[in-house]
Amino acid sequence: MTVRPAPDLPRRPEGPQSAPRRRENRLRALDGLRLVAALMVAAYHYGGRGGEITQSWGASAQRQFPTLHTYFSYGCLGVQVFFVISGFVICMSGWGRPLKSFFASRASRLLPAYWAAVLLVTAVFALPMVAQKALSPSDVMVNMTMLQMPLGVDRVLGVCWTLWAEVRFYVLFALCVVLPGASRRRVIMFCAGWTLAAAITQTAHQPLLDVVFMPEYASFFIGGVGLYLVHRDRRDVYAWGIVVVSFLIGQHYAVRSLWNVSDPNAFAHRSSLGIVLVVAFGFLAVAAIALGWLRWANWRWLTVAGALTYPFYLVHEHLGWVAIKVLHRDLGLPSAVTFALTIASMLALAWLLNRFVEDRLTPRLRTALNKTR
Description:
Layout (H helix, E strand, L loop, with lengths): L17 H30 L4 H6 L3 H4 L3 H5 L5 H17 L4 H27 L11 H7 L4 H4 L8 H19 L5 H21 L2 H7 L4 H15 L4 H22 L13 H19 L9 H31 L4 H37 L2
Helix pairs in contact: 1-5, 1-14, 1-15, 5-9, 5-12, 5-14, 6-15, 6-16, 10-12, 10-13, 12-13, 12-14, 13-14, 15-16
């Protein structure tokens, strides 16, 4: 059933005929940006850091990519780009939706591929020929709840810390916006209140407040929410104010946590300017989508790319370690070829997860959750 806007709402063209086309274009452009962010993170995990990946290469990634490793080290900021996209998408999907529907949409979107990825990585790491430590069955079962981070349990998927941040954002948005009913004023108050709470949390030094308000990442989610308000009305001064303040705060946290020029033992030295530029890219790219400047990016393959992004993000790190070892150390392929083939193989695996897990389980889980009283 279509809910028509009341006569006293803004007179912007939001009729039932124009909305679907606008959403389709926006989604395809966002799908492309999602894939870019995921590839940034993969480049960081494969060639922009030390740790476990060194064992897969047989030597430091600095030796494998003498020039590119410095650029790859900025790929970790793909997470911040994801958070800006998430703020935009969650505000859009939660607008005018009841709480149960919002919960069903988010749970059915996250859980099927996540469950499959946890089981798949656990199974691969348990193979005798794979030199990786598998977690205990008890820890794996806790990981299936997606609550391993607050419970202090070892993670099956290294990237799941970002999902824990996403879940906390969903809860805040659901309680403050979706439950009482989304409106421009309520969303603005949510953004302003969360920004202030995150700033106070930074000075309070209270672990519980840190968990709830996430000062290090809040500004990226809030900036994405503000950009959705811009998408609804590009002349909204309050929305632009939310975006600008969020960028200014977000770049501060990014520089503070990632700038490492003073560390002589750093894998690669990131400059503060480089970090700011990558953060600015994330905000500007979503802003271009919000303003309709990328409406021309309406290729159908972007929808496929967007569908692969989440399962790719889940499996690429740990299973990428295995693929790199087989391709580079066992088969002797050059570093560049190994890098490209590993990306391609993880995308192929993501397609299988999307085709045989998400396409089959997501609609069923969403229907079941929506029917539950």
